Amino acid sequence: MTRPSVWATHYGSAQFPTPCGWYRIVLPLSELGRHGWDAWCESSSHLPPPDSEQAGIFVLQGGDHRAAAAALRERAMFQRLVYETDDDYFHIPPQLPEAYAKYSRPEVRGYIAANMRACDMVTVTTETLAQSVRDETGHGNVRVIPNAIPDGVLDLVPFRRPRRTVIGWAGSGNRDQDFAVIKDAVVSVLETVKRTEMHFLGTDYRRLLPRGLPARHTHPAAVSVDWRAWFSGYDFDIALAPLADIPFNRARSALKAVEAFARGIPVLASDLDPYQGIVADGVNGYLCRTPRDWSKRLRELTCDRAAREEMGRKARETARAHVISAGVRHWDDAYRSLL
């Protein structure tokens, strides 16, 4: 029997994989390869190479221009096509200036919508994002496939400091509006609770805190380069997952919470779509609705090591349901439905 085959291409990135390319292409395709698939992935700023024509399914990530449209029209004659995205291109906020300058242009959004419609399936991370795609494109086959993490993350030894409490945030660039949600609560705790420290993982946001507060920054290798180094950077006692309440954020996934859960860290998260259903109040963290919620819950957990550790154990149990060996079935089911 012929093995099913899939070739995934990330368009337009000088470096591949990007974190989203790693989570949505490299990690799932690698796991599919262990489950009977022939799977390949690459990045290209041009038309895909001829070798990719051998696959039964062709997956495109980042197709936002005319060249992608031409490639899809050609391939529709002999391949089943999938458009993969983990971002809501139709609601990019002005607070993301580079992305907004590009994706607010009607012609670019038009290419994205047309390229999605040209594909047999669109795969996304959340139901909120799926509905945005349906509303903007009218596509009838949008599949929600949640993000997953490597199984090996759960084998890393949880990090604990006996003499101080570390509050942490793993944020990417241009997230000032999200940090604003938690800034007052963080400042209040750092100023009044002894032996507390703020740790920024990834992008350095110390500039948003008043000078003199205990805060540090580390930037390990990106998850797409060395996932062990990235996850080892989660040396927090409490992880924060704030989101400004805008449509773009409502379509995000719960990945930041899952990453922290896998390291045995309780999460305080905004009570918005991404985290509802995964962050359980008083079990593995808390959902926060108001500034008072953030202040109250952050102070409670900062001052209660036993509660943090119990929630951390429950957090790791939550993460077990989100490893790639469990999540690969969603990719397998979706792709096989096209064959």
Which helices and strands appear, and what pairs or packs with what?
Blueprint: E1 5-11, H1 19-33, E2 38-44, E3 57-61, H2 66-75, E4 80-84, H3 97-103, H4 106-118, E5 121-124, H5 127-137, E6 142-144, E7 165-171, H6 176-192, E8 196-202, E9 215-218, H7 227-232, E10 238-241, H8 247-250, H9 255-262, E11 267-270, E12 285-288, H10 291-302, H11 305-320, H12 324-336
Parallel strand pairs: 1-2, 1-3, 3-4, 4-5, 5-6, 7-8, 7-10, 8-9, 10-11, 11-12
Care to describe what's here?
The protein has 339 residues and is α/β, with parallel strands linked by helices. It folds into two domains: 5-148 and 324-336, Rossmann fold (3-Layer(aba) Sandwich), CATH 3.40.50; 151-320, Glycogen Phosphorylase B (Rossmann fold, 3-Layer(aba) Sandwich). Helix content is 39%, strand content 18%. The strands form two sheets. The protein has a six-stranded parallel β-sheet, sandwiched between helices. Strand 3 (57-61), helix 2 (66-75) and strand 4 (80-84) form a beta-alpha-beta unit. It is globular and about 65 Å long. The model has no long low-confidence stretch (mean pLDDT 93).
Task: From the structure above, extract its key features.
339 residues, alpha/beta, Rossmann fold, 2 domains, six-stranded parallel beta sheet, globular
Q: Please tell me how large the radius of gyration is.
A: 21 Å
State the distance separating the first and last CA atoms. Answer: 13 Å
The CATH superfamily of the largest domain is known as: Glycogen Phosphorylase B
> What's the arrangement of strands in the largest beta sheet?
2-1-3-4-5-6
Helix/strand-derived category reads alpha/beta
What is the top-level CATH class of the largest domain?
A: Alpha Beta
The largest β sheet comes out as: 6 strands, parallel
What overall form do the CA principal axes indicate?
Answer: globular
Mean pLDDT score: 93
CATH architecture of the largest domain: 3-Layer(aba) Sandwich
Number of strands: 12
The helix tally amounts to: 12
Low-confidence stretches: none
**β-strand amount:** 15-25%
SSE pattern, N- to C-terminal: EHEEHEHHEHEEHEEHEHHEEHHH
Helix amount, in percent?
A: 25-40%
Quickly count the domains: 2
Q: Assign the CATH topology of the largest domain.
A: Rossmann fold
